[in-house]
């Protein structure tokens, strides 16, 4: 935002990250995390669940996971506007690697990887990339609150889950208020920033640079579309959970699938390395047990649902960066 006129201006580009092979570094860290994670995977139980499942419905669950990527890519293209128009293929590579880092490392690992890749590959400044991810986390939070609201409406919720949901809602509301204030700074901020010297002047200039990176919050149509895409992604997660239920011989239970995705949204919020192994399948199992689903099927569904999320994410993280540059080379 221009310090005297109040017109938004993008933060300065550049920085050391633009000269570092970030993509290669993230993939190396991803590979190291996989090596560390392998001993923690309950291979015998997973194989038993896999053998006893319906492969067609597992394939449908995997397709539901893969269907997230076009929506995710489009959403991130919107968040990068108006200062960077990132091509679909380039943004898809960033999404694929970031999702793989989130799956194998942690949510924090995925966010840090995304910031580095947005700076290195998409041309955003480090400040713009950090603001971008703040908006992304707000959208993730909104979709989590939406699925939690549906879960609270369809079934009795334990007090502990209500408390966790309330804490998450508080954090999301605070983030929304903070970003909204940054996106719409009062005029006095611009006047202070116009001063020639002083710590307060430098601080307000920084705040105006952050504000310039939050254009999605000033464009109601763009913001609404980004929220719709976030909710559509969450709906695909529920569809994947339903497909896994059928694959495990469970009578399709939409309420249980919604509750499982809602519970996973809460229990995996805190980073657990490696890849929420144990946390994710246990959460699904406990939800299904409470829904009256037999223990063997509930355990199998938890393991396979996590597998249908994490395996496609890891494969996409390695394969998408290999395939798309080759395709670009052929068409150029």
What's the helix and strand layout?
Elements: H1 22-37, H2 43-51, H3 55-66, H4 68-80, H5 88-104, H6 107-120, H7 126-154, H8 159-183, H9 187-193, H10 199-212, H11 220-247, H12 254-267, H13 279-290, H14 295-331
Name some characteristics of this structure.
single chain, 332 residues, mainly alpha, 14 helices, 74% helix, disordered N terminus
- Structural class based on helices, strands and sheet pairing: mainly alpha
Radius of gyration: 21 Å
Main sheet: strands, sense, barrel: none
When the domains are counted, the total is 1
Could you please describe the fold and organization of this structure?
The structure is a single chain. Helix content is about 75%, strand content about 0%. It is an all-alpha fold and about 325 residues long. The protein has one domain. It is globular and about 70 Å long. Residues about 5-10 have low confidence and may be disordered.
């Amino acid at each position: 935002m221009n310090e005297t006129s109040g017109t938004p201006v993008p933060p300065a580009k550049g920085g050391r990250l633009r000269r570092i092979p970030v993509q290669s570094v993230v993939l190396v860290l991803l590979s190291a995390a996989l090596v560390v994670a392998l001993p923690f995977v309950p291979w015998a139980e997973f194989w038993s669940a896999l053998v006893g499942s319906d492969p067609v419905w597992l394939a449908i669950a995997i397709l539901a996971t893969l269907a997230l990527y076009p929506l995710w890519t489009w959403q991130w293209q919107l968040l990068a506007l108006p200062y960077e128009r990132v091509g679909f293929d380039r943004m898809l590579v960033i999404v694929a690697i970031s999702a793989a880092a989130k799956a194998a490392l942690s949510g924090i690992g995925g966010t840090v990887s995304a910031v580095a890749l947005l700076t290195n590959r998409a041309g955003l400044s480090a400040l713009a990339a950090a603001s971008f991810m703040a908006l992304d986390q707000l959208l993730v939070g909104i979709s989590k609150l939406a699925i939690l609201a549906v879960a609270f409406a369809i079934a009795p919720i334990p007090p502990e889950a209500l408390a966790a949901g309330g804490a998450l809602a508080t954090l999301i509301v605070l983030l929304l208020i903070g970003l909204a204030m940054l996106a719409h700074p009062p005029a006095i901020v611009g006047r202070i920033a116009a001063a020639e010297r002083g710590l307060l002047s430098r601080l307000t200039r920084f705040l105006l640079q952050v504000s310039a990176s939050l254009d999605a919050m000033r464009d109601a149509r763009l913001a609404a579309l980004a929220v719709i895409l976030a909710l559509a992604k969450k709906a695909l997660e529920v569809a994947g959970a339903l497909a896994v239920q059928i694959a495990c011989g469970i009578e399709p239970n939409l309420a249980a699938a919604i509750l499982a995705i809602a519970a996973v949204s809460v229990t995996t919020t805190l980073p657990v390395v490696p890849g929420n192994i144990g946390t994710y399948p246990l959460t699904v199992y406990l939800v299904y047990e409470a829904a009256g689903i037999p223990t063997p099927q509930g355990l199998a569904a938890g393991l396979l649902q996590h597998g249908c999320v994490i395996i496609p994410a890891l494969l996409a993280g390695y394969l998408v960066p290999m395939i798309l540059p080759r395709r670009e080379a052929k068409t150029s």
